[in-house]
Amino acid sequence: MPYEVPFVDPRAHYARLKEEIDAAITECLTRGDLVYRQQLRTFEEHFAAFIGTRYAVGVNSGYHALLFALFASGIGPGDEVITVAHTFVATVSAIIHCGATPVLVDVQQDYTMDPEQVERAITPRTRALLPVHLNGRICDMDRLLPIAARHGLSVIEDAAQAIGARHRGREAGSLGQAGCFSFYPFKILGGFGDGGALTTDDPEVARLVSLLRYNGEDRETGEYHVHGQTALLDNVQAAVLDVKLRYLPEWIEHRRAIADRYHRGLEGVPGVSLPHFPEEIQQDVFQNYVIRCAARDALREHLARRGVETLVHWPKPMWAHHGLGLADPGLVETARVCREVISLPMSAETTPVHVDRTVEAIRAFATPMSPVES
Ligand SMILES: Cc1ncc(COP(=O)(O)O)c(C=O)c1O
């Protein structure tokens, strides 16, 4: 049975942009513009201008943006890269796949990398920091960037969830050596399948990643300069993303307004913590609207019964997935977050009525309960 309040609504999303998207796809298909054509270059130019970097390189996933950013920073076997365990698995898999060792640190209250723990995790083998701007909020770069500079470390931003988020007026993805973005369909800027981009001001990084994504080939000369991968952003996908990019500022405003409505509706509800963190330095884009509740699983079931679809990012710490072969790093906050977080409906199609229904349902859950410690 479909939810009355869906977490996201891809059909409604397509319906509102149908004309423009269909026209962009039809143009590519009728002209035969399928691989590495003008639409890709145009999107890359527009995307770089949006982020405020000199270059943007389209790749076929956020994972590949991360992997290539690590390769381009010269990271490989014997090196350590510090990141968080509270992230999508691709962040850590990219480190493993370039032969380096992920060193996992805990998160702060706002779910981003704890700079104090980073300081303690640095060893002579550390080569890079990989901060993850989770849920639409940028990490504490005022503290992380000086730590990296002091220790001579590269900074690769995982901005997959933070397109359009700002730190002192600068965009996520423009603060380190490279920014890594995902266009997975349910991201704020989502394509119709997998896609991603790497942003950078460094011409060497841009050039190397352009080669790596195209099996090492320089498209102009046909020369293979490096063993690369098949990981180009599809041309049709780029054409669609270019259409959607025009709406991005509007969608970000919408998400912030939806977050504000959740905030007003849920403020003071016993046992529920809200994701409204100081905004003087970082401006949040609310990729996810994440609340915390010690009775999370019961709350989730209650919401489902009332027609509200929610997700949990993520119910189990990464190291507890034994197939990943990660040692338990003993991250107390990360383990607790996994037990308590729940993501409420949030997308460009979420309406005030959806928010009010969700708020009402959460209030009905909270009322008969004694306050829950959070
Ligand atoms: C924080 C984070 N990092 C990396 C990725 C990987 O992106 P993709 O799924 O496009 O490979 C995602 C996407 O889900 C993400 O949320």
Quick check: average pLDDT?
96
What percent of the residues sit in helical stretches (DSSP H or I)? 25-40%
Q: What would you call the shape?
A: globular
Largest sheet: 7 strands, mixed
Task: Give the uncertain stretches in residue-range form.
Answer: 370-374
Structural class of the helices, strands and pairings?
Answer: alpha/beta
Give the strand order, joined by hyphens, for the main sheet: 1-9-8-5-4-2-3
Gyration radius (Cα, Å) is 21 Å
Strand elements, count: 12
Number of helices: 12
Q: Note the beta-strand portion.
A: 5-15%
Q: State the end-to-end distance.
A: 32 Å
Topology as a string of helices (H) and strands (E): HHEHEHEHEHEEEEEHHHEEHHEH
What compounds are bound to the protein? pyridoxal-5'-phosphate
Question: What is the topological layout?
Answer:
Layout: H1 10-31, H2 38-51, E1 55-59, H3 62-72, E2 80-84, H4 89-97, E3 101-105, H5 115-121, E4 126-129, H6 141-151, E5 154-158, E6 166-167, E7 170-171, E8 178-182, E9 196-200, H7 203-212, H8 235-245, H9 248-266, E10 282-283, E11 289-292, H10 296-305, H11 332-340, E12 341-344, H12 352-366
Parallel strand pairs: 2-3, 2-4, 4-5, 5-8
Antiparallel strand pairs: 1-9, 6-7, 6-10, 8-9, 11-12
The chain binds pyridoxal-5'-phosphate.
